[in-house]
Amino acid sequence: MTRDLYRTVVSLLVTVAVSRAETGEKAGVFSRQPYLQMATPTAVTVVWRTRVAIKGELRVREKGGDGVVRVPVEKMTVRRLVEDGESSAGARALHSGPPGTWQYEATVGGLKPDTAYSYEILDREKVVTPADGSCVLRTNPAPGSERPFSFWVVGDSGTGSESQKAVHRSFKAWRAQAKRDVDFCVHVGDMAYKNGRDAEFQFGFFEVYAETLRGLTCWPAMGNHEGHTSSGKTGVGPYYDAYVTPAKGEAGGLASGTEAYYSWDYGRTHFVCLDSYDLAVTADGAMAQWLKADLEKTKAEWVIAYWHHPPYTKGSHDSDGELDLTEVREHLMPIIEAGGVDLVLTGHSHVYERSFLLNGAYATPTVAENAVLDDGTGDPNNGGPYHKVPGLVANSGTVQIVAGHGGQALMRRHYPNPVMRKTIAEWGSVLVEVNGRTLTATMLDVHGKVRDTVQVVKDAKAVGVGIAEPKGPGEPEGPYELKSRVVVPGAVEPGGP
Question: How far apart are CA 308 and CA 80, in angstroms?
Fold first, then answer.
């Protein structure tokens, strides 16, 4: 297929997607199925869209209980396009969407921590949500809770392609077979190719993940493709229409005053999300200053940070040759590591990469010497986990994972990054589990096979020191020959960097 023909085909597919979204080509009352946002120990927000106004309520029942919590339409935030009429008092109008869209954001409070509920949406006394058991929500554990938990991580997935759907199927199959379910999901950006338009969100995100999103809260980070139509500076655009995040510290972190970056707590783990696309990442910038203050405030046992642009990669992007990536490494990573962050999750580069235990790799080009604290495998089943001291200790080591392999075309350069223990050119996603003083992350490939495992155990007596001559990076793996930069056959080609 020639590049011109390819572009023509892609253009036609996007046109069809936009047409479907704008004409409401979907059974039932919903033009966007219900999905969960901003869970806390006592509240969860349920969001959905319809073509016509509903007259009803959200009902939430504790599983196995008799009590019902009701949120009538009058108590919901209702958002509309400016040309279609007024939104709720104090609510921002929708930036974009099909004409006639009604978006409902129903926050149900007064719930019990760490408790499972079923929910249903009624319109004119008729239940309109699916009766397949997928409409469930679970509140977050109380602060300080030591209950083990796990979550799903996916990035660079929003193509609507078969590869994206296959990754989702592999996760659902794993979930069905697992002894314990996952608790929420994190998306590290590029969920709506090519330009983050409303119709592209619908086609490449909400329709693909509809069943999963009905029952798992999704915590997002904005990617560069969403940034084509959404602005972190103003908090306006399809990305900000879609998500509800804790700008005021509602979920336990330090209030940021913006939905572009935020933090939240889950038991004894603190999460931090940053905007690496269109906000300043320099140390004197507002985001970096908030990040430093947020990390100083938290008393968590673990800290996990996520954003879009990776500080280390040699996949479809090169962190030694692109300003967005080098700035993240040079300006944000010193704050991240000084704050004791344990795990960093990013996307952008269409590959899976996982680092050694690192501290201080800020130079350009990236070098591993004296910046690797442990050059072992990190795999508890083959070589042993990485060890850190308990609690949050400055510069005690961070593991970096690039999870940009969620569905977009797989690409890699002809050499691995020197700080990466694993480089795998295969579609997939990442599962992270936190259990007491042990954190485990696994790469689940598109076929449902675990391709990499890294574990961090907080039982060390002292902080490690940089190794002068660490072992070299692991050999890249993949289903195809990886002697040079390649595009995996059958994938949708990237629509830009």
Answer: 29
**Residue 132 DSSP symbol:** S
CA-closest candidate to residue 410, choices 160, 147, 163: 163
pLDDT of 402-446, one tens digit each? 999 999 988 766 579 999 999 999 999 999 999 999 999 999 999
Say which DSSP state 141 is in: P
Q: Which residues pair with 314 in a beta bridge?
A: 318
Say yes or no: 121 and 208 in one domain.
Answer: no
Distance CA(280)–CA(284), nearest Å, equals 9
Structure tokens at 368: 């591993």
Give the CATH number, domain containing residue 279.
3.60.21.10
Q: Write out the two tokens for 124.
A: 């004119």
Handedness of CA 287, 79, 35, 119 (dihedral sign): positive
Q: Using the 3D structure, point to which of 74, 101, 132 is the last residue of a domain.
A: 132
Note whether 121 and 167 are same-domain residues: no
Distance CA(360)–CA(302), nearest Å, equals 19
Which amino acid would we find at residue 1? Answer: M
- 180 HSE (CA, 13 A, CB side): 12
Amino acid identity, position 122:
L
pLDDT score, position 3: 37
Strand segments, DSSP code E, in 142-287 are: 149-154, 184-187, 217-220, 262-266, 269-273
Average pLDDT value over all residues in the chain = 91
Among 132, 159, 184, where does a domain finish? 132
Match 């954003």 to its residue by tokens: 307
Q: What is the CA radius of gyration of the chain?
A: 22
